[in-house]
Write a structure and sequence with these properties.
This is Rieske (2Fe-2S) protein. InterPro entries: Rieske_2Fe-2S_sf. It comes from Arenibacter antarcticus. The strands form 2 sheets. A 6-stranded antiparallel sheet has the order 1-10-9-4-3-2, with no helix packed on it. Strands 5-6-7-8 form a 4-stranded antiparallel sheet, with no helix packed on it. The chain is about 10% helix and about 30% strand. The protein has 1 helix and 10 strands; from the N terminus they run αββββββββββ. By secondary structure, the chain is mainly β. It has one domain: 3-layer Sandwich (Rieske Iron-sulfur Protein), CATH 2.102.10.10.
C-alpha cells in the first residue's frame, strides 16, 4: 500500500508544473468586465465587422471585438510580440490589426499572426478575451 501511495504522490508532484510557457511574457493579464450595448455599437450587429474599444479600463490598450455571424471574439489591442510601448497599440483596418512597431499583422477571425517570420524565434498570437452575448449586450472580460 505504501509504495502505491508514494507513486501517487510522486505523480502529483511531477504533473504540477509551474511552467507557463503558453502565457505571453509581454502582456500582463488584467481583470475587467466591459459591456457593449448593441443599440449604440451598430457595426457589431453585422457579421464580419469589428470595432476597437479604446476605454482605459479594458485590457492593456483596449480591445478589438469581432462579430463572426455566430459568435463574438475579443482580443487585446496591444501587440503581443513585445512589451507595451509608444507604438504597440495596433490599428484596425477591416479584419486585420497591425502593429506600427514592426508591421506585424493579425487576423481578427482567429487572432493569428499573419506572415509569421521563419527565424526560429517564438511569436505570439493575439491575447484572447472572453466575449459573451447577453440580450442586446456583448460583455467582454478577462
Amino acid at each position: 500500500m505504501k509504495p502505491i501511495l508514494g507513486l501517487l504522490i510522486l505523480a502529483i508532484f511531477i504533473s504540477c508544473d509551474n511552467n507557463h510557457s503558453d502565457r505571453n511574457p509581454y502582456l500582463l493579464e488584467t481583470n475587467f468586465r466591459y459591456p457593449i450595448n448593441l443599440n449604440y455599437e451598430i457595426d457589431l450587429r453585422y457579421p464580419g465587422n469589428a470595432i476597437h474599444i479604446k476605454d482605459a479600463t479594458v485590457g492593456i490598450r483596449g480591445a478589438f471585438v469581432f462579430y463572426s455571424g455566430s459568435s463574438y471574439l475579443a482580443w487585446e489591442a496591444s501587440c503581443p510580440n513585445h512589451a507595451p510601448n509608444d507604438c504597440s497599440t495596433m490599428s484596425l483596418e477591416g479584419l486585420i490589426v497591425t502593429c506600427s512597431c514592426e508591421g506585424y499583422r493579425y487576423h481578427l477571425s482567429n487572432g493569428q499572426l499573419l506572415d509569421r517570420p521563419d527565424d526560429g524565434k517564438r511569436y505570439h498570437d493575439l491575447l484572447f478575451y472572453q466575449a459573451t452575448l447577453s440580450g442586446n449586450t456583448v460583455i467582454i472580460s478577462n
